Amino acid sequence: MIAVRDNRDKAAFGALFDHYAARLKGFVMRSGVSSGQAEEIVQDVMLTVWRKADQFDPNRAQVSAWVYQVTRNRMIDMIRKERRPIPEELTQEPDPEPDASQSLALEQEATKLREAIQRLKPDQREIIERVYLGELTHQEISNQTGLPLGTIKSRVRLGLERLRHELKGMRS
């Protein structure tokens, strides 16, 4: 951990990852989390360990205590996110007939969205389509394509940012 903190040593980080990944996954899964979600949490935790290695102080805690604390914090964040109340749907009587102007507007929006998706970089478009049209998890896409989970997440984030930018102002 000291080599990671002081020298950004990738080999040392690889050894840390190899040592802790399976242990952390088991720890997370014992709290009732699915295997796929546990893997995502472990990826996030290890990324946090790499990014915040400069905050590790061997005088305050052992490496294992520090890594497990990061993991516990990530799990708490996940639980809080899942327990957020979802706003109740407003009950509204369905319109007996769809309004022609609404149908036209919806069709135009769908066309603009399809065009914006087609303008994405091919690698981003493929991942966005797999996630939102194929309803696959990031882990499933990673397994199918052989791409690292972080790459999948980056392509989704960058693709959505580009779509958001291109479609800005479409709905007011």
Automatic annotation (TrEMBL):
Top-level taxon: Bacteria
Family label: Belongs to the sigma-70 factor family. ECF subfamily.
InterPro entries: RNA_pol_sigma-70-like, RNA_pol_sigma-70_dom, RNA_pol_sigma70_r2, RNA_pol_sigma70_r4_t2, RNA_pol_sigma_r2, RNA_pol_sigma_r3/r4-like, WH-like_DNA-bd_sf
Domain (RNA polymerase sigma-70 region): residue spans on this chain: 16-84
Keyword Transcription: yes
Disordered: region residues: 82-105
Pfam families: Sigma70_r2, Sigma70_r4_2
UniProt domain RNA polymerase sigma factor 70 region 4 type: residue ranges: 112-163
Keywords for the protein's UniProt record, in alphabetical order: Sigma factor, Transcription, Transcription regulation
Gene Ontology terms describing biological process: DNA-templated transcription initiation
GO MF, one annotated term: DNA binding
Entry keyword Transcription: yes
Annotated protein name in UniProt: Sigma-70 family RNA polymerase sigma factor
